[in-house]
Amino acid sequence: MPQASNSLATLTPPPGARSLLLDTASAIMREGDVIDISLSELSLRSGLNSALVKYYFGNKAGLLKALLDRDWQAIVTSVAALVAKDTMAPEAKLRRHISKVVDTFYAVPYLNRLTMRMVRESDDLEARRIADCYLSPMYRAYEQLIGEGVRAGVFRDVDPQLFYFTVTGAVDRFFSARLVLRHCFDQDTLTEGLRDRYREHTVDIIMAGILAR
């Protein structure tokens, strides 16, 4: 296993090392259904010197922060682009968004739990940064998406804040339930087929609750 160097100054990181560390950390948490990593496992699986965590991120907490930022930035950018689509009907927008949430949690099932951990373990300034950069934009997106539908007469006037918790809770609970699948349904793998079934089910259930008709 690659050994940590006593001096960061002697390190010559290979191209793409920072991204590889983040990708490997993500894979470890996704496959293990955990929100923590071992630096020795990270080094072994990535083939990189574990001292590079300090070189790029300062420490393991910095690595987790960078992973959280990477995953959330992609989501916020995608949601903002969807909200801005003036040519798409409100119902179509919301259906696409919920579908994308399911796909996102399938790819990074640790995201909500990691977010809550980082908020709890951070100082007030960092917790506020996470909320302002990632959680508040999602709430504002729901305000816009639902508001468009209400004005168009296709959505009931539901509380965007509660709707956010409904969507996030429904998806996060399923993709963090591997132990339930194992012990109740003799299934230990979240397959693409199961994801697709749950996506269709979740979209239908949630849309049935918000559609005016």
Give the overall shape, derived from the CA principal axes. globular
> CATH homologous superfamily of the domain at 64-210?
Tetracycline Repressor, domain 2
Query: Which CATH class of the domain at 64-210 applies here?
Result: Mainly Alpha
**How helix-rich are the residues, as a percent range?**
over 70%
- The CATH architecture of the domain at 64-210 comes to Orthogonal Bundle
Helix/strand layout:
Layout: H1 17-32, H2 39-46, H3 51-57, H4 60-83, H5 90-107, H6 111-121, H7 124-152, H8 160-175, H9 178-185, H10 192-210
Walk me through this protein's architecture:
This protein is 73% helix and 0% strand. It has helices spanning 17-32, 39-46, 51-57, 60-83, 90-107, 111-121, 124-152, 160-175, 178-185, 192-210. The protein is built from 10 helices and no strands. Helix 3 crosses helix 4, helix 4 runs parallel beside helix 7 (124-152) and helix 6 crosses helix 7. It has a domain at 64-210: Tetracycline Repressor, domain 2 (Orthogonal Bundle). The chain is mostly helical and 213 residues long. The longest helix is centred in the middle third of the chain and has 29 residues, at 124-152.
